[in-house]
Amino acid sequence: MKGLYKEIEESQTLLINTQSKLLIDQNKKVIKFGFGQSPFLPPKSVLKALKESVKHKEYTSVQGDSELREFMSAFHKQHNSLEVDPNNILIAPGSKILLFNILMAFKNADVFIPSPSWVSYAPQARLAGHHIIKLNTTFEERWRINSKTIVEGTKLKKHEASILILNYPGNPDGLTYSEQELIDIAQIAKSQNMLVISDEIYGLLNHNHSHLSFSNYYPEKTITTTGLSKWCGAGGWRFGAAFLYKNIEPEFKQALIGIGSETYSCAAAPVQIAAKTAYKNFNETKDYVDYQIDILKKIGNYCSDHLNSEKIKVHAPQGGFYIFPDFSFHKEKLNLRGITTSHQLCERLLIETGVALLPASAFGFDADNLVARLAYVDFKEPKEKHLFNIQNDSPNIIEGIEKIVNWIGKS
Ligand SMILES: Cc1ncc(COP(=O)(O)O)c(C=O)c1O
User: Fold this and answer.
1) What is d(CA 322, CA 334) in angstroms, rounded to the nearest whole number?
2) pLDDT tens for residues 318-330?
3) C-beta 43 within 6 A of ligand 1
4) CA-proximal residue: ligand 1, atom 16 (nearest)
5) How many percent of the chain have pLDDT more than 70?
6) How far is ligand 1, taken at its centre, from the CA of residue 95, in Å?
7) Tens-place pLDDT, residues 32-53
8) Ligand 1: which residue has its CA nearest to atom 5?
């Protein structure tokens, strides 16, 4: 019956995967640029640790294994000078549920969400009953918010509590912030007494090995979220963490643990044991991460160079595995083909060429912005570590980009 239930659609990232599967079932080739899933396997030592830990069938504490929390704290200190007390780490089945629970811990809040940003922030904030303040950005601003955007947003405030969600390197844009940009945002966040949730799940995949944690610029009130889903290629293992700030209000921490206990109980025990191997020694893990970055950087630059040369405007990625191409230069031609929204753009591209992208409307954009997210993950991990070659090892990337360019060139 209408009106009884909360209105919430299936996440559009999962939806594109389903649509692509339908085409595959009809024996049609699909180039999978829609779903952001890393093609890399977790390191062998981590796989072995998971295999050997299947007998660990017990529940752990809500907060997570204490030795693992110590490893994570030391790992991140070495990786990007992030300081977190192991007692202030929460481990959960994925960072998504932690993001949601942080929002759920507030009674009423204004949640500042950049646009574009990851598909789930706004639905989560809505489910938690909060007031969303959208922070718009432009291609020229590299899809980044700044202090001015935030000040503008504060004029729409309705509640005492303010939460700003940051995500870099970003999904859907693959872009990060400079140190000065982070300092400026931290300054305004502090002056407004905002809680900042800094989603740094792609931090280890910064293409220049230079990820800066927001908590270094605003240690007073930043919660950092991360996990194994992206840099360790283990999204389906469901492992995430939140790093709380030093003097977190005891009642806030208690609320987070309480909500955790009433929802997920704990992250899977075998996965926590495998995570110990992943986080035990940053230097060992670094080789594995560097190898991925090397490949991702080459592919990301290949994609952005080729799209730009056909006037599909896009910023070269700085981290993660996404780019956010803007097709608006071709607007008239697309309009003549009956394409006026990003949804239609992606639908027609998928049907006519088999290339799956995600529409910008899924990331908070108005329907008529002809922008889409491309996840450059449709390649296989090369057998020989140092022999990666785009032409040989990622034929679907080459084919997919060529198909987009030819499709847009069609009059
Ligand atoms: C920006 C961003 N944050 C959070 C998540 C959720 O990750 P997890 O697998 O840790 O729940 C994703 C996954 O796609 C993401 O892209």
Assistant:
1) 23
2) 999 999 999 999 9
3) no
4) 171
5) 97
6) 6
7) 999 888 899 999 999 999 999 9
8) 96
Average pLDDT over residues 387-398: 88
Ligand 1 pocket, 201 CB below 6 A? yes
Tens digits of residue pLDDT in 352-365: 999 999 999 999 89
Domains, in order of start, for the chain: 12-41+284-409 (3.90.1150.10), 44-280 (3.40.640.10)
Residue 115 Cβ inside 6 Å of ligand 1? The answer reads no
* Alpha-carbon torsion (333, 339, 345, 349), positive or negative: negative
Check: pTM over 0.85? Answer yes or no.
yes
Q: What is the pLDDT of residue 11?
A: 66
